[in-house]
Amino acid sequence: MKRFALLFLIATVFINCSDRDDNLEGVNIRIKNESSVIFDAVQVGSDDMIHENIAPDEYSDYLEYETAYTYAYINIMVGEENYVVQPIDFVGETPLENGFYTYGLNISEEGDVVLNFIMD
After folding, report:
1. To pair with 32 at 20 to 30 A between CA atoms, which of 6, 9, 25, 105?
2. Looking at residue 114, which CATH number applies to its domain?
3. CA nearest 106: which of 32, 29, 35, 30?
4. Number of structural domains, the chain?
């Protein structure tokens, strides 16, 4: 009887296990602050996709995007300063598959945004 209970428990655990990206309907992106300053806000794409208060070497929460690419329009707000990446278009680019991704962001000494794309 103990063996049956143990086998039942093991089978239940394996049946209920799933990857976090099973049944995803979108692309989930978070921000990693790879700079030495606090990002007050980071807009990725549209006006309503804002990642807020990201300390150096910290991550934001994931936000779900309908469509995303390995790069995007990015506006990093640090105090009164804005640092922007403005892609011209996405012609020829392949949209990301549903899943989890990280945009590692840094600001160069010249004030340029440096994007490090990471598949989670």
Report:
1. 25
2. 2.60.40.2890
3. 35
4. 1
